[in-house]
Amino acid sequence: PPEQAARVKKLQEQEKRQKVEFRKRMEQEVSQFIQASGEPRRRFQPMNKIERSILHDVAEVAGLTSFSFGDDEDSRYVMVFKKEFAPSDEELEAYRRGEEWDPARAEERRRLRELAAQQEEAEHEHGPAPPGPPNDYKDKYRHLIGSDAAKAAARTMEANKAYGC
Asked: Was domain 2-87 assigned CATH 3.30.1370.50?
């Protein structure tokens, strides 16, 4: 029916207009972000897939780095970064886990990892541990026979003169 085709066409034009308006709005926001000197990154409100793709495109054209975060479609949002403040892998991982990025905590984690690596390196330089148990093999059985049993057995043992050469 022609009236249905007209309705569909009208809806498509309306959607197209909304996308164009949304893009203009995002271009303005990105422009403000670029001019805001104390702002290395900006988090945008959650938006649908089409809006996110428009924002990613606007960011790319403006020479910015952008990423989407969030698990489900309703809560996914875009974060835009200035090139000189491009996020590290650790920072991106924090956002992917849904955490706030804390450079001080990240520095502490990095120091701990470095320390662990140094310890591992030191152990590696000393060579592998000698094979076998690090303690006296008798200690392994002490709980079974006690510490005096072996001495007592040795004292009571006498040579059997009937046996031998």
From this structure: yes
